[in-house]
Every structure is written in C-alpha cells, then in structure tokens.
Design goal:
alpha/beta; 5-stranded parallel sheet; about 425 residues
C-alpha cells in the first residue's frame, strides 16, 4: 500500500517501515526555529527544565522579525533573551531584521524537501511549499525539543487537493488558497495534511507554492505539502535525486480528495469578519477601502511585488488612501529595488517598510481605527487583529490589492 507525502516524510525521519493516521511517532527534527515573540519564554522554560546545553546548536535558528524595531518596552526584553540564549547555548544562526522568519527559513535553505521542522509559530506550514513537514509548536514544546532533539507527532490523515488545467489571466495562487479555505472552512483541515497536486500545481513557482502552503493552517491543517520538483530542489540547493522518493503514490489512502479545474477559478476575497468567509471578488467589488497592505509571509515575495508594481506603474493610489508595502526579506527588498519595483510602488504613493512582519501582526504602523476598512494580502482578518475591533479587514491577492489601491474600492485588476 502506498503512503501520503506526510507519511513518507515521517517514515523517512523516524526510520519506521510504515505508519498510518493516528500513529504516534518520535521525530528527530532536521532543524528548529523560535522567533522574538517567544525568546523570553523559551529561554526560561529551557532553564526551568534543567537543560545545560542544546541538543544540536547547528540545528537551532533564532529570528527577530515580529518585534523589529521594538515599539513597546518589553520588546527589547525579548531581544535580550534571544541573544542570551544564543550566547549561553551556542546557537549560531541568529537573524536580526533580515526578514520574516517564514520567508527566511526556505530562502536560506534551513527548511528543505523531506525535512521535519518545528517552529514556534502557526504559519510554519509555509515550508510545505518546498516539501518539508513543517508545523508550529508552543514555547514549552520548543524548550523540550531544544534539550532533547526529539518531538512526538501524531501521524495526520490527509486530504488530496488536485487542480488541473491553466489558471485564467489575473488569477493566482492566493486565489487558489482562498477558494480552498472557503470550501474546507476554517476547521475543515484540522490536524490534517493538505497535499496539492495536478497539472496546475506542477506549473507553479516556489513563490506560489509557499503562498498556498502558508494558508493551509487557516483550515486548521497540521501541514500543507507539495511534492518536490527540480525547481524547488534547485531553490533549496539540493539534488532532486536526493528526494525523488517523495512523490505521490496512486494507492495512498486519503481521507478525502478534492478536484478542481483551474479554469473555474476567479479572483476571490476573504470578507470581514472571518478568514473562511470567502467570496468571488465580483460579489464584493465596490466596497470602499481606507488602507491597502501588500506583504506578509503569505504575499511579500518578489513575484507578489512584481504583480503589484506592474499594476501601479504609471498610476497613483487613490486620494486619502494609505498603501503599505513590506517585502518579506532583505534579499527580496534588494531584488525589488534592482528590478525597479520599489521605485514604481513609491512613485505611485506607497509607503515601503523594512522587511518584517509589519501590519500583519497588528502591532506597529498602519493599525486601523474604528470603521476603517483594510484590504491586505496577509493571511488573517480576525476581528480586532489589525487595530480597532470596529474596523474591517478583507484579504486578497497582490494584484487585487494593487488595483484596489488605485481606485479606493475593491477592484478586479481586469477592470483597469
């Protein structure tokens, strides 16, 4: 009998000859990462548990991305404990303000095809875009992993999502992610592996795959996985032959199979106030918007900035509208500068920030006042997450966000 992608990775990591949904396996992670929000708690728990050293300092990564630059007094305290952990326990891979952790992990080759990775953040599922079994854990679990090098996992059941065909012009991977989220609902993938295949998926770039995998957790998924191809292996700096074992088996047992025709997809929007309140853009077009945000670990990559810049080049944003653009990493920022995207965005009226979690985390610049409306390319529109609980947040692709910035109303790029 065949196995799902999730089962294959867990078997490869643990050495088990077979496994099935519901089994408990003890994994040995290829790397772990914790970020600035949890540095204080991770450090204190690690010491409280009596550990004197990390199980493998070369596999420990610390990133500062949510609280950079500090905007509250305790933020700097988190910086202090992150540096303290690195100094006392030998963590050598520390990144301060280099970008959003979920972009940096695959971009820098820390998360690679076939790996098992644990991180103190729910959007760790992003690394499934480069075929890693990657999932979020709490800071107590992280402290235990740091000391032991082990982490138990219940083998998830899997949902196969097959998309064949060619996407229509103006439809992108974010639209696929939103449509699937609307169909499965916010709890429809709880503790499952969402596994993506089909001819439309095969044509997707790494940037596009990372976007879909990032949104898998919004369905409650444990992981969101793609089979590796030569492009993702080249991106990750490995030979495809090393991970050719990680492919779809025709006789694998899936809890459910969802099939789509790519041609049936349209631009979608997750409407206020729930992330799974997904509607075709045509149903909500014309809603007035006060702010637009393009960025986050969902859509802050070079392909996203290109889509926005192509629409905004030679245009101006609507009067009184605020457009915030945040590249997902320092290298993406530099590449966008080189290609002229940043120049085009700034000329249109955008405020471009340094690479960090930005407005998505609901802490620093751009927060919403009562009755304000935001359209963002981020992954969550929870009530009050981005400011006043009386504000409204809608989610879309970068192309829809850029077109909306031009008109000041929810707009299909095709209408421009």
């Amino acid at each position: 009998m065949g196995h799902t992608l999730a089962e294959k990775i867990l078997m490869h990591n643990t050495g088990a000859a077979t496994c099935k949904p519901g089994d408990i396996v003890i994994t040995h992670p290829d790397c772990v990462m914790f970020h600035d929000i949890y540095t204080t708690n991770v450090y204190r728990k690690f010491v409280e548990m009596g550990f004197k050293k990390s199980w493998n300092p070369d596999k420990v990564i610390i990133m500062f991305d949510h609280l950079i630059p500090p905007c509250l007094p305790l933020d700097s305290d988190h910086m202090k404990y992150g540096r303290r952990f690195a100094e006392e326990f030998g963590a050598k891979k520390v990144h301060i303000a280099d970008g959003i952790c979920h972009q940096l992990m695959p971009e820098l080759g820390y998360a690679k095809p076939g790996d098992v990775v644990f991180v103190t953040d729910s959007h760790t599922t992003t690394y499934g875009g480069v075929s890693a079994f990657a999932t979020g854990i709490g800071y107590t679990e992280m402290a235990a992993v740091l000391g032991t090098g082990e982490m138990w996992i219940r083998v998830p059941s899997a949902v196969k999502i097959q998309i064949d065909g060619i996407l229509p012009e103006g439809v992108c991977s974010k639209d696929i992610a939103l449509r699937i989220l609307g169909d499965l609902t916010a709890d429809g993938g709880t503790y499952k592996s969402l596994e993506f295949c089909g001819s439309a998926i095969d044509r997707m770039s790494v940037d596009e795959r990372l976007t879909i995998a990032n949104m898998a957790v919004e369905c409650g998924a444990k992981v969101g996985l793609f089979a590796p191809n030569r492009e993702t292996c080249a991106y990750s700096g490995i030979d495809y032959d090393q991970v050719s074992w990680l492919h779809f088996d025709e006789d694998a047992v899936y809890e459910k199979v969802l099939t789509y025709k790519a041609e049936d997809f349209v631009p979608y929007v997750a409407a206020h106030p729930f992330v799974d309140n997904v509607k075709p853009l045509s149903e909500v077009a014309g809603i007035k918007v006060d702010k637009v945000f393009i960025g986050s670990c969902t859509n802050g990559r070079i392909q996203d900035l290109a889509a926005a810049a192509n629409i905004l080049k030679g245009r101006k944003i609507a009067p009184a509208l605020e457009l915030i653009v945040t590249p997902a990493s320092r290298s993406i920022f530099k590449e966008a500068l080189k290609r002229g995207y940043i120049t085009d965005l700034v000329a249109a009226g955008a405020m471009v920030t340094h690479p960090y979690c930005s407005l998505c985390e609901g802490r620093s610049g751009g927060l919403l006042a009562a009755n304000e409306v935001l359209l963002g390319t981020n992954n969550r529109n929870f009530l009050g997450r981005l400011g006043s609980p009386e504000s409204k947040t809608y989610l879309s692709s970068p192309a829809v966000a850029a077109a909306t910035a031009v008109t000041g109303y929810l707009t299909d790029p095709a209408d421009l």
